[in-house]
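4.2 Preliminary Data

To establish feasibility before requesting continued support, the project team ran the inverse folding procedure on a target of 487 residues. The structure was first converted into the token representation described in Section 3, and no sequence information of any kind was made available to the design step. The complete token record follows.
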């Protein structure tokens, strides 16, 4: 894990353009053409709908973690345990997946000097085996090498719900040997393919490509993992050459049990969801799950950073149904890696019988600061020196321009000094007296069935806030109608 090198970033950015393809020619015909049916037929890409609720700050700020996708399990007493990695992996318990607030326990430390994990062990996925837990572990060595670290994957086993782990050995290594360059294969997560195999999706550092390997669930020990070679599952997990998946579809995996398909998330100038029926040929949903400006790993930066996403099922692990939790690492604008936050959002996914427009909607929420000022945002309400409590849902914005009506693209304007945030038409924050922080999303320019009006209001103390009511809740007067949000 850790900060990406120039080679990593180049690999990511060079493949971003492919994510704009709505229905790739290589995606299976079932995904492209069929709708959700009682027999479990997977949905067409355009038939998928998703809804995200407001972001919840679970942990942070931290200089170390989360530095990997988060995995969560449900414990026998009904509580939950999250595994949060940053070179050293922690276990953190809580009553719900979004309340991982109890004191942390160290469950994995870096390996001994000279080992493949002497820079750290990041637990990236916890998997339910037959009577035991298995953990997928990202390893790094040569972290002080000016050329960059070397990555590999191992597997571990736990018989006490993840509080201690027995390292079984390496399962995924690169095919280039121990060259004096950033290399190896890592950053993997795994999901149950519901066909007797676990599938792990990885980043190959030498070319920035995604690859996939699998092992039988009944015995995922070292030596049992094989990579997809392009011809079959016949390339050894250790030093074998895997075939690159088409496009950059990411490494953050989950299995959607309702549709019987594999899901992958990728950070590619917005958070993107891809789907495959055969675990190999992925198509990307056209509308992003989260809309943001860029993936800038040179911190601090003027833009925010979303990283290491994961999908957590309602009852833990990553076999998701219609309701799940989206998690990710978040770094606010202007902040460096010393201010990492773990964010979770409740999410819903379903397949309709026909193509849907829009496909993705995300909650537009108003928060109240400790001094009474408000912040209206679709993102996490994080600003140094200010604290916020959730106030109200103002509707849902779209992450792409609507096709059936004129859209209104909205920006979030914010003042670090006052801690007040409001909305404006894209490009008009400065004219409204604020600084642009991020894209909020898209509303409708004109009223549609099932929409709510969004008004920019000016309070009696001459401060902007956003309301659904033209009377501005009797707290001020409305300056302009911004557009209409989905209910």
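Position-by-position output of the design step:
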């Amino acid at each position: 894990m850790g900060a990406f090198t120039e080679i990593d970033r180049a690999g990511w950015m060079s493949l971003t353009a492919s994510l704009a393809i709505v229905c790739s020619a290589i995606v299976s015909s079932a995904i492209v053409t069929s709708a959700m049916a009682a027999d479990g037929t997977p949905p067409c890409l355009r038939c998928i709908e998703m809804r995200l609720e407001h972001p919840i700050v679970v942990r942070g700020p931290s200089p170390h973690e989360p530095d990997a996708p988060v995995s969560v399990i449900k414990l026998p007493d009904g509580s939950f345990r999250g595994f949060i990695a940053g070179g050293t992996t922690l276990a953190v318990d809580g009553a719900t997946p979004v309340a991982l607030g109890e004191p942390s326990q160290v469950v994995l430390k870096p390996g001994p000097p000279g080992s493949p994990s002497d820079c750290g062990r990041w637990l990236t996925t916890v998997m339910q085996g037959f009577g035991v837990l298995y953990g997928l572990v990202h390893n790094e060595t040569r972290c002080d090498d000016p050329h960059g670290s070397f990555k590999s994957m191992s597997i571990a086993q736990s018989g006490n719900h993840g509080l201690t782990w027995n390292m079984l050995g390496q399962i995924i290594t690169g095919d280039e040997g121990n060259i004096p360059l950033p290399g190896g294969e890592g950053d993997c997560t795994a999901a149950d393919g519901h066909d007797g195999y676990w599938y792990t999706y990885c980043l190959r550092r030498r070319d920035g490509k995604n690859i996939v390997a699998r092992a039988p669930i009944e015995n995922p020990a070292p030596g049992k993992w094989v990579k997809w070679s392009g011809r079959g599952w016949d390339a050894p997990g250790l030093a074998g050459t895997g075939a690159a998946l088409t496009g950059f579809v990411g490494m953050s995996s989950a299995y959607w049990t309702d549709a019987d398909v594999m899901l992958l998330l990728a950070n590619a100038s917005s958070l993107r969801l891809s789907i495959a029926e055969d675990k190999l040929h992925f198509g990307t949903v056209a509308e992003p799950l989260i809309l943001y400006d860029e993936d800038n790993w040179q911190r601090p930066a003027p833009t925010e950073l979303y990283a290491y996403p994961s999908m957590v099922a309602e009852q833990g692990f990553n076999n998701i149904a219609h309701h799940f939790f989206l998690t990710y690492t978040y770094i606010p604008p202007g902040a460096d890696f010393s201010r990492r936050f773990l964010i979770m959002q409740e999410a819903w996914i379903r397949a309709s019988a026909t193509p849907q427009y829009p496909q993705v909607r995300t909650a537009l929420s108003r928060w109240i600061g400790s001094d009474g000022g408000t912040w209206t945002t679709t993102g996490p309400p994080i600003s140094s020196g200010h604290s916020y409590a959730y106030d109200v849902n103002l509707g849902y914005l779209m992450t792409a321009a609507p096709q059936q009506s004129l859209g209104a693209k909205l920006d979030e304007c914010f003042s670090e000094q006052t801690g007040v945030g409001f909305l404006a038409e894209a490009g008009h924050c400065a004219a409204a007296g604020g600084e642009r922080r991020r894209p909020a999303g898209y509303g409708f320019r004109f009223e549609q069935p099932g929409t709510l009006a969004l008004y920019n209001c000016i309070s009696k103390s001459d401060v902007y806030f956003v309301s659904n009511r033209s009377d501005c809740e009797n707290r001020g007067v409305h300056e302009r109608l911004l557009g209409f949000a989905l209910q």
